[in-house]
Design a protein that fits this description.
The strands form 2 sheets. A 4-stranded mixed β-sheet has the order 2-1-7-6, with no helix packed on it. The N and C termini lie far apart (about 45 Å). It is built from 2 helices and 7 strands, in the order αβββββββα. The chain is of the alpha+beta class. It has a single domain, classed as SH3 type barrels (Roll).
């Protein structure tokens, strides 16, 4: 099993296998505190003034990753799953305040 550090993963482009879209490169990773494993990766999506807002960042669960290759991270996200991820993020923001 090949190992990567987060700096190496940040350099790889995330590609959705369902429709072939390039989602961008991961900027952050969320870890599980109990076992230290990566739970999800966050791919920034430009939004807001000059693309500086992070409101539309895509949080991809680790179990959606199909393959990590030399240049790309292949994920399998249906359009419904992408919408669901974005809705979950909006709900969390609303409940925060």
């Amino acid at each position: 099993m090949e190992r990567f550090n987060t700096c190496e993963l940040r350099e790889k482009e995330v590609v959705n296998l369902c429709d072939g879209t390039r989602l961008g490169c991961p900027s952050e990773f969320e870890f599980c505190a109990s076992d230290g494993k990566i739970a999800s990766m966050i791919v920034p999506r430009p939004s807001g003034f000059l693309g500086l807002s992070h409101a539309n960042d895509l949080t991809i669960p680790w179990n959606k990753i199909e393959c990590i290759g030399e240049d790309a991270i292949l994920v399998r996200l249906t359009p419904d799953e992408i919408v669901c991820i974005e809705e979950e993020k909006r709900k969390k923001k609303k409940n925060y305040w």
